[in-house]
Amino acid sequence: MEHLVKTSHGPVCVAVYGDPDKPALITYPDVALNYMFCFQGLFFCPEASSLLLHNFCIYHISPLGHELGAPAISLDAPLITVDDLADQIVEVLNFFGLGAVMCMGVTAGAYILTLFAMKYRQRVLGLILVSPLCKAPSWTEWLYNKVMSNLLYYYGMCGVVKELLLKQYFSKEVRGNGQVPESDIAQECRRLLCERQSTNVWRFLEAINGRMDLSEGLRKLQCRSLIFIGEHSPYHSEAVHMTTKLDRRYSALVEVQGCGSLVTEEQPHAMMIPMEYFLMGYGIYRQIQSVSPRSPLSPTSISPELLSPESMGLKLKPIKTRVPIS
């Protein structure tokens, strides 16, 4: 069920899946995406049902104007900031009567949720971050985003913008080239980007491009954090930097081989075992069911380091490991 929640900075669309009596898990997508693409691959994994849907009620939060069929926000409307977006989340939680929640975000969405956790520590149980941002944009990233922003403003969701976004989301193997055709997942993403209101994407991109550095406040976070980063993600060094700034007792880093930033869509199966061990620290377990020998959760498909509960933070030790492509 989708709800349109009125907040101080405009209405926010929230899609709710599951039993509201269960603990809450909120999600926040990357720029130009919404839950229907950014998290669909992960939640459609058979194993996700027994781990996430069995234990949580999912609240998918869409950035302003990113939901399907959203009208264009007027160019005359005041621009929002990352602080405004973080403050919207607490208004969403209050609307649903939620207390402390588990958070899952991708890249820009991971930044918003991290900022939310820093501002409202008592409302966050834990962070699951995919290819997160935590620093202010470098000059290179700022210029890259500014080019996209100007193209969006003057030309809409044109072909160049879509190519720039796909380059941020996916590895070369998924995007294809002259010898390798573009994958189905990249084609579907390209189609969904055409449905976005360019002015709404522009507003979110402007907010993210004006973000501040969170590095100094990360060590004060009191919740556990699990970070996934694709080997070929343009934000790889930023994820590693973020891990060094977090309290090493409460954080873990998982590097996924042969993957871009959007691990939730490109290799969602690689997230399941690390998340299972991470959630065990909260007393949350996967629903018992048989696992096919060919399943991504089969022990033969997972790096041996991941099979140790100690390595996934049950004793709160950080890791950096690789998940092979199955």
- Tell me the β content: 15-25%
Spatial gap, N to C terminus: 34 Å
User: What number is the mean pLDDT?
Assistant: 88
Q: How many DSSP E strands? A: 9
Structural class comes to: alpha/beta
Low-confidence stretches: 290-326
Q: Can you summarize the main beta sheet?
A: 9 strands, mixed
H-E string: EEEHHHEHEHEHHHHHHEHEHHE
Sheet with most strands: strand arrangement: 1-2-4-3-5-6-7-8-9
Determine Rg (CA atoms, Å): 19 Å
Number of helical segments? 14
How much helix, percentage-wise, in residues? 25-40%
Instruction: Give the overall form.
Output: globular
Please characterize this protein's 3D structure.
With 326 residues, the chain is of the alpha/beta class. Strands 1-2-4-3-5-6-7-8-9 form a nine-stranded mixed β-sheet, with helices on both faces. Helix 4 packs across helix 5 and helix 6 runs antiparallel to helix 10. The longest helix is centred in the middle third of the chain and has 17 residues. The radius of gyration is 19 Å and the shape is globular. It starts with a strand and ends with a strand.
Produce the secondary structure layout.
Layout: E1 2-7, E2 10-17, E3 24-28, H1 35-38, H2 40-43, H3 46-53, E4 57-61, H4 82-96, E5 101-106, H5 108-119, E6 124-130, H6 139-155, H7 159-169, H8 172-175, H9 184-193, H10 198-209, H11 215-218, E7 224-230, H12 236-245, E8 251-256, H13 263-266, H14 272-280, E9 320-323
Parallel strand pairs: 3-4, 3-5, 5-6, 6-7, 7-8, 8-9
Antiparallel strand pairs: 1-2, 2-4
